[in-house]
Amino acid sequence: MRMSEAGGTAKIGRKRSARRNSNSAPTIADVARAAQCSPMTVSRVINGEQNVRDNTREQVLAAIEKLKYVPNRAARSLAGGAQLRIALLFDNPSASYLSEFLMGALEEASRRDIYLVVQSTETQPDYGELIRRLIDGGIGGFILPPPLCDDQSVLDEIEDAGAIAVAVGPGRASGSHGAVLIDEFQAAFDMTGHIIGLGHERIGFIVGNPEQVASERRLQGYREAMENAGLAIDEALIAQGQFTYRSGMVAAERLLNAKSPPTAIFASNDDMAAATVAMAHRRHLDVPNDITVCGFDDTELASSIWPELTTIRQPIREMTAQAVSMIAKAYKKAGRGKESAGEQLTLPYKLVRRNSDAGPSLASSFNKPESRE
Amino acid sequence: MRMSEAGGTAKIGRKRSARRNSNSAPTIADVARAAQCSPMTVSRVINGEQNVRDNTREQVLAAIEKLKYVPNRAARSLAGGAQLRIALLFDNPSASYLSEFLMGALEEASRRDIYLVVQSTETQPDYGELIRRLIDGGIGGFILPPPLCDDQSVLDEIEDAGAIAVAVGPGRASGSHGAVLIDEFQAAFDMTGHIIGLGHERIGFIVGNPEQVASERRLQGYREAMENAGLAIDEALIAQGQFTYRSGMVAAERLLNAKSPPTAIFASNDDMAAATVAMAHRRHLDVPNDITVCGFDDTELASSIWPELTTIRQPIREMTAQAVSMIAKAYKKAGRGKESAGEQLTLPYKLVRRNSDAGPSLASSFNKPESRE
DNA sequence: CGACTTTGTGGTAGCGCTACCATGATGAGG
DNA sequence: CCTCATCATGGTAGCGCTACCACAAAGTCG
Q1: B residues 71-100 near A, CB within 8 Å?
Q2: What pTM was computed for the model?
């Protein structure tokens, strides 16, 4: 069917063993035949169900291996029931964050054969209206990245309309909706601790967009780590940002202009950290030898610039993928009449050390770090 | 009513009752009923077949509109025939480029219900082996981003093995395989012309990775535009880069150190342009007032930094999506015995003007006091 | 030790759609 | 007029898989 009927190329070893099923990809029936059981049993093995004798299971697995069987997603989701459609609503996140985000969602949606609608709220500022229209259009679930994930009214709107909402990366879990997050507080705490461990004492902090709860949590982590280490917090070393590169430049400038400037700056995300590095360079400060700069999120930007940023790796892709899974599961349950519980999932973060941090230079531990390269 | 026979299975009963969530997407049968025709006719309309009376067609379309019917992809591809699997092979492209790339592919693959395998060659430097293994595993087509798209041996390997290869963004079209590209030469020509139009005469250029044919094409575009404008090309203003941020810094530094430095720098991609901006800032050069910096590709990095880069928008996502489509089409044709021709598709690029360019400052170009917008 | 549950397995019926063939209606040509 | 292509449409049979039920076999218990 898919190859010319003349000499078969080496595409897939065509097997005539089957009846008319001749040469296409092996099906569950082929596996069943090879394993001498029914297709149902094969299906059970594939789906990891319990009620299969170990002996049988092994035979099936061997057959799968031998035939290089791969389940047909299309058939799976067709048989599995109604097709789920999920909307990914985003408002105005940083570009690099968004792309990571989309990748995770797209990948998982593709894997599960879920139709993913990506919607910006920019064109439609009336969230309620937008959400209703989407639900009418058959959307069964919503994924909300920051900052939307912190907007309780949006969450409520969705649940009231009978759809499923999952917040990804909100400041903290709350309410009945699902959420996938990391421990923002602890992560910021750890990073600050790491910087302190390097020997820094005057550590600046750039706060993120105040609309997002995560910003506050990160700030708290910083504060607590400082206090924990017995370090005074100089409020002049805390600058407000917006999570954008531009705001990072402004904030970094302010910090660098302080009477007694910091020897390290911890920015609440990578965009602002990158801006801080740029601003430091502008002043002929070497990163990391004159000043340490750390970020948060580990978006691709962190490793596109130089020096590459030490940052907190937030598993954005995995988080989004999990969000898709959660919606899929909740949706199935809802079909059986069970009320979804609003699961919360906290994923691990990781401090990724790269080249933008170092111990404080002797020169700069004095107050006036006049630098040269 | 649908499924009105007595003793409908419990499944359907459940499904109908589970309708609390505005579930139960309309099917082709629902549309057929509304349009008073058979499902087959609806199918024909959806697939744009010819043999349908206009009258009927309109009725069907109206019904689709009314019911907000959306075809079920899973069912479609199940009924349609064998499932296609495509591998996206990448070697070592810039991170921002890759993510754009993936988005396009993932999106289109998801739309067409194609299974997409993303494979890095890093772990498996023997391409031939890798390709053969993938094909044995049922992969029917390959998408190749730079720099793999310029590697003729990889292309040949794939075609010899009987699979379909599509190069995305190669320097130039060649051979029998499919390709999706933009006119690299013309784009670089245009950008250089744009910079010249701003009044610049000493224009630096940062060349991309010499392994990629596109690098050379861009350089040619620059050269020709310069000559075309009667501007001398100072070889000291052409620096070699590698498409990485780091290499961009080194190249920019060299350019800025020239005895007679440029008033504008055109970097062969956004990563290197961003590095150039950073390097300029380091020297207290204002962008764009002291120096103009332009990039190429319009990856997200171009608009995450400040000032946002004037660059060439290469429709990477669309290009990749087209690549997926091309493979899907070729695959179908191959099934019918026709040999695929190796289509070439050239997509339009666009010069995106943002904030990193301006006319030369008076100080640095004493020759020509030109317009300043 | 028979009436129960609990397992492991097989059978069957579709999921929503399209390929393919069959049909009835039209018109063209003998 | 009747035969034969040529439409426009309908009917039917799956695509590969899973949900659900049936049913033996193997416990479990009073």
Answers
A1: 72-78, 81-83, 94-96, 99-100
A2: 0.78
B15: helix, strand or coil:
helix
User: What whole-number distance in Å separates Cα of residue B55 and Cα of residue A302?
Assistant: 58
d(CA B358, CA A314): 38
Per-residue CA distances from A33 to A24, A27, A29, A120, A180 (Å): 16, 10, 6, 49, 42
Radius of gyration of chain B (CA): 26
Between residue 38 and residue 77 of chain A, the positions with Cβ below 7 Å from nucleic chain D are: 39-40, 43, 46-47, 69, 71-72, 75-76
DSSP category for residue B198: T
How far apart, in whole angstroms, are the C-alpha atoms of residue B102 and residue B323?
A: 12
Other Cβ atoms less than 10 A from the Cβ of A284: the count is 14
Neighbours of A315 (CB within 10 A): 18
Inter-chain residue contact A301 with B306, CB threshold 8 Å: no
> What's the token pair of residue B20?
């609390």
A153 lies within 8 A of chain B by CB: no
Residue B206 carries which side chain, given as an amino acid letter? I
Q: For strand B85-90 and strand B141-144, is the pairing parallel, antiparallel, or unpaired?
A: parallel
Structure tokens at B129: 């082996």
Nearest nucleotide to B76, CA against C1' atoms? C17
Instruction: Show the tokens assigned to B343.
Output: 């289509």
Please say if the pLDDT value at position A16 is more than 70. Answer: no
Of A94, A300, A306, the CB nearest to B95: A300
Nucleotides of C under 7 A from a protein CB: 7-20
Contact at 8 Å (CB) between A286 and A263?
no
Q: Which of A111, A124, A110, A115 shows the shortest CA–CA distance to A88?
A: A115
The two three-digit tokens of residue A260, written as one number: 């007694």
pLDDT tens digits along A323-355: 998 888 787 766 555 555 678 899 999 999 999
Number of A:B CB contacts under 8 A?
173
All domains in chain A, ordered by first residue: 1-71 (1.10.260.40), 83-168+316-348 (3.40.50.2300), 184-314+353-365 (3.40.50.2300)
Partner B contacted by A284 (CB < 8 A)? yes
Mean pLDDT confidence for A205-233: 96
Lowest mean pLDDT among A286-300, B31-45, B164-178, B270-284: B164-178
Is residue B238 helix, strand or coil?
Answer: strand
Give the tokens for residue B169: 């963004």
In angstroms, the CA B359 to CA B167 distance is: 38
Per residue in A83-95, pLDDT tens?
678 889 988 777 6
Q: B116: distance to nearest CA of chain A, Å?
A: 9
Residue A126, class by beta-carbon neighbours within 10 Å (0-12 exposed, 13-18 middle, 19+ buried)?
exposed
Length of chain A: 373
Q: Give the residue from B314, B373, B310, B301 showing the smallest Cα distance to B348.
A: B314
Q: How far is the CA of A52 from the C1' of C5 (A)?
A: 18
Phi, psi dihedrals of residue A115, rounded to the nearest 5°? -85, 125
One-letter amino acid for residue B162 of the chain: G
- Is the CB of residue A143 less than 8 Å from the CB of residue A117? no
**Cα(B76)–Cα(A75) distance, rounded to whole angstroms?**
10
Inform me whether the C-beta atom of residue A113 falls under 8 Å from chain B C-beta atoms: yes
pLDDT in tens, B18-71: 333 335 678 999 999 999 999 999 999 988 888 889 999 999 999 999 998 888
Closest CA to A354 of A305, A311, A314, A299: A311
Dihedral of the alpha carbons of B284, B290, B295, B298, in degrees to the nearest 10: 90
Interface residue A306 vs chain B (CB under 8 A):
yes
pLDDT, residue B339, reads 55
Q: Does B270 touch chain A (CB under 8 A)?
A: no
